[in-house]
Amino acid sequence: MSAYVNTTATTPDAEIPMSKPAGRRTDVRARGEPFTWALGGALALGCLMIISFLLMVFWNGVTTFVPKDVVVVTSTDNTVTAGEITRAELYKPQAADLSALNPDVQAAIKAKDGYAERTLYRTGNYDIYNEDFRWVSSYDVVKTEKPKDILFAEREEWGPLIARMRAVAVDGQTSDLTTIENDTFTKAHAAARERRERINTIEKHSIGKINHALEELRLDVRRAELKSGRDSAAHKDAERQLEERSKVLQDEYKLLAEEATRLREINSRNTVTFVEIGGREKKVALDAIVRIYAPNDLSFFGGIGVYLSRWWEFVSAEPREANTEGGILPAIFGTAAMTLLMVIAVAPFGVITALYLREYAKQGRLVAFVRISVNNLAGVPSIVYGVFGLGFFAYVLGGSIDQLFYPERLPNPTFGTGGLLWASLTLALLTVPVVIVATEEALAAVPRSMREGSLACGASKWQTIKYIVLPRALPGIMTGIILAMARGAGEVAPLMLVGVVKLAPELPIDGFFPFVHLERSFMHLGFHIFDVGFQSRNSEAGKPMVFVTTMLLIGLIFIMNITAIMVRNKLKRKFKGSQF
Hints:
This protein has helices at about 35-60, 95-100, 105-110, 125-130, 185-230, 235-270, 300-315, 330-360, 365-375, 380-405, 420-445, 450-455, 460-490, 525-535, 540-575; strands at about 70-75, 80-90, 115-120, 135, 140-145, 150-155, 160-170, 175, 270-275, 280-285, 290-295, 320, 325. By secondary structure, it is of the alpha+beta class. Strand 9 and strand 10 form a beta hairpin.
């Protein structure tokens, strides 16, 4: 008898699935599909917002230095306004203003729901008008023209000057010149600017060296007094050296001061007389004119020349006119130096802490509490770190350093106040949780089998970490450092307490020993944006500088981050395929 049992045989009680009648609609719902669309839409919206923001900053930043035409507008009351068109907008005129208009204009404004258009002109000439901008209503315009003899002059002080040229005085002799396309004006202006540069070199560098040498001699006297007493031989010898050396330095100072005075007298005899659009005269020293051109008579290549010269000034010169004009070289240097010092400080502390928590510490409640604390530190407001940095780094640590190593400088603080070093360490504390968390994740991603294989071959735990674990975790560590750089470079609030200033007279690097002065205050691009946008006398005048500085800050962060990403990708390729 066969032992085979047919298990496919049906029984009377078996349920046979019935097919659905033809033509009936199947009710099938794609589970989770609406959520997928919502998440995708949110991602697309976020990307669109970021791209729009970057495009807005980029467009406004790139077009900031483009020379614009100067428009001369004549109003119904015979008021003449000359300036660059900044923007236009709709507004509601006051009832008193409307009543003075003719019926046709009133009817046109009422047809637009009571709104009229007005244009904002950058008139410059702040020392004449006491304003930089002026609104002109469209219904008030009688005539608009662009005369070719109008000049746009950028000055060291008082902002731009928009006027016509009447005369030029060279060495006290006046010539009736009305155009800048003249060899007399061109040569005289170039010579005046060279003399001004020479005066700046004398005052900042040559006389600065003399002042530095005198200060060092005074500190030697004070140092000898503190160490040996006022009646000691060392103190008397230091005083004698100060007296002898001071005579030589004073003679050098006198010669330099006389040269600077002579150059100023020459520049005072080289002036330009302008006439603004209303007929008032303004005399300007030739050396005070940074750049001058005829905007309505500017060729294509002439416009490119003005544009490039403005960019070069922006990235290579110091600020002027309350930071709303000129360059931002000190801010670029300060931002880059602070970010690099922050990375140098945060990388070893963050990596060492993560190594101990992941590889050495016994996992338990205490380690779990430490991890929670590290994660919570990432949410502490940045201004709190600034207060801590000012109190601990500057006042406690810096004050102790001054007492131990710089007692002769007291009560003037050296390290006992805000500076580049303390700002970098403060931001290192601010970003160290990011590096710790990223490093721990990178260490945990290294397969345990690689550790066990290394230990089985006789390597010590440190050798395993050094040659096996750390190299393969470096891409993840670099990710944490990149995130720390991106956050630290854009922070402003803590820096306002620990070292950043509106205008730094000296860079942290110079020709005096020890050449790198980490105790000095510095400028920062983020604070520069805040200062120009919200602390300047005219926010409208500072708006272009805000956009171009923002673009530069984003570009600087991008360059630093892309460099770190390239290093990270190189490490990834090096250890690709070696994880198993």
